[in-house]
C-alpha cells in the first residue's frame, strides 16, 4: 500500500485517505461517464456487474439502487408475500426486516451467537419448528442470515436447515463483501445474496448502491425486470410489479475505481483488526472470527461492562465511536405488533447493552491505533 499523507485527526471511516490514493482513477472514470452521457444504465453498469460476478464466483450480478433495494428485489424474485414467514436475526440493521414487511410477509426473529454476533443456528431450527405455535397461519418461506460486521454466518448449517424445511437462503452480505467462508467469497453463500455499496461499506460508492447475486438464470431474469418497474420486452411492456431500482452509472464508475484497491484494503483491514485485538485483549471483549472464515471488518465492535465510560473517554480525546445496534429489532416500535417482549432474545439484548465500535478503515496508522486502544479502560 503506497504511503499516504498522514493526519493526526482520527476518522471513524476515512474516505478521504482512500480518495487520495485513487483520485486519478475516479476522475478518469467519472469523466468517461460525462463524455458519453449515459447516466442511466450506461456501459459502466454492465462492466461492473461482470467484474462483481467474477469476484464472487456467481454467474449473475444485478446492480441496484441500494442494499435495501437488493434485499427487496431478492424477496420479490422469490415471490415472497402475505402469509409467508422469513426467519432472520433480531440483531441487525432494520433494512433486513423492513423489506420482509414491504412485500407483506412476516419477519420471524431469531437470537444470535454472542461470540460472532451472527444468527444462532440451533435457535434458528427451534424457531422454524415452533412457527405454528408462535405464529399460527404463517408458512415458512425463507431465511435471511446477516454477515454482521463483516463475518459470514454459518452457511453450511443454515443451508442444511433450509434444505430440510424447503426454504431458500438470502445472504445479507451488506457488511461482508470481500470476506470468505470455507474458501468461498461472500455473495455466493446462499441461494441468492444481497450487498450494499453505501459509502461506509468495505466497497462503497459515493451515494447509495447495491447488488444482487445468484446462479439461477430465471431468478436473474426476474431481478433485471423488477429493477426497471417490472419491464418485459420494452419500456412500456410491464410483466410484473417492480420498482425503480437501478444503480446510477456515475456510482458504477466510482465502484469500478474502488474495486481496483479492494483486495489490498481487505488485507489492511485485517491487519488493523489484528493490532486492535492484540492491544485490547484482556481489557474488553474483542471480536471472535471462526477459523474457517475471514471478516472484512465493516466495523470493529467490542463489548464492555463500562461502555458509556469508555465512549466518554474516547470522545474526550476526539476519537469517534458508534453503537451498532443499541436496540434489537424485536424491541423496535415498528415490530411491536409481532408480540415480542424484552427477554425473548437474551443474547441480542445482552450484546446491545454492551457493544460499541471503534474507528475502522484500511488507513489507520499504528500510532492512531495505539492512541485509540490506550483510551479504552476496560
Provide a brief overview of the structure.
With 378 residues, this protein is of the alpha/beta class. It is built from 13 helices and eleven strands. It has helices at 15-36, 43-56, 67-77, 95-102, 121-129, 131-134, 155-164, 217-226, 249-259, 262-280, 307-316, 346-352, 366-374; strands at 60-64, 84-89, 106-110, 139-144, 168-172, 180-181, 184-185, 192-196, 210-214, 300-303, 355-358.
Could you explain the architecture of this structure?
- It is a single chain.
- With 378 residues, this protein is of the alpha/beta class.
- The chain has two domains: 231 residues, Type I PLP-dependent aspartate aminotransferase-like (Major domain) (Aspartate Aminotransferase, domain 2); 113 residues, Aspartate Aminotransferase, domain 1, CATH 3.90.1150.10.
- The protein is 38% helix and 13% strand.
- It has 13 helices and eleven strands.
- The strands form three sheets. The chain has a seven-stranded mixed beta sheet, sandwiched between helices.
- Helix 1 packs across helix 9 and helix 3 packs across helix 4.
- The two termini are 32 Å apart.
Runs in which pLDDT lies below 50 for 5 or more consecutive residues are 1-7
Rounded to the nearest angstrom, the radius of gyration is: 21 Å
Question: Biggest sheet, strands in spatial order?
Answer: 1-9-8-5-4-2-3
Major β-sheet profile: 7 strands, mixed
The helical percent reads: 25-40%
What is the H/E string?
HHEHEHEHHEHEEEEEHHHEHHEH
How many separate structural domains?
Answer: 2
In the CATH scheme, the class of the largest domain would be: Alpha Beta
In round numbers, the mean pLDDT is 96
**How much of the sequence is in beta strands?**
5-15%
The assigned CATH architecture of the largest domain is 3-Layer(aba) Sandwich
Structural class: alpha/beta
Taking the alpha carbons of the first and last residues, their distance comes to 32 Å
